Fold this sequence. Notes:
The chain is mostly helical. Helix content is 58%, strand content 6%. The chain contains six helices and three strands.
Amino acid sequence: MKLLDIGEVAAATGIPPSTLRYYEEIGLVTSLARHGLRRQYAPDVVLQLRLIALGKSAGFALEEIAGMFGRDGLPNLPRDVLHERADALDQQIRELVALRDTLRHVADCPAPSHMECATFRRLVEVVGRRGARARRHREGRRPTVRTGSN
């Protein structure tokens, strides 16, 4: 088996050598040898690095990605976690589409001032409520209901 040096791996994946060294430091990848001062990797590290890049693109933290590889470096992808991430991405897509539509409306609105546009004001209100709800969810709190005076 012909080993790839760190420069070849970087060229094949687009990942800088400094990042490859960091990934090795935290245990995501392993070099097999050194040729002089240059680290040498098995050819299958390219696929492993592409899977790591895919995981990062999907929003997984490096620690989460590390847990998706066995000791042999082969992926062991927990399907339930992947479904949860896909659901989170669906929600993010819905929010981004709504944001895009809001921006387009604001850009095209014929009202002299955006604050005079009823649609714009409604959109701002909806975004504000979503933001408050998301903060409460992140903080693990439910909205408080006040009763009586004071």
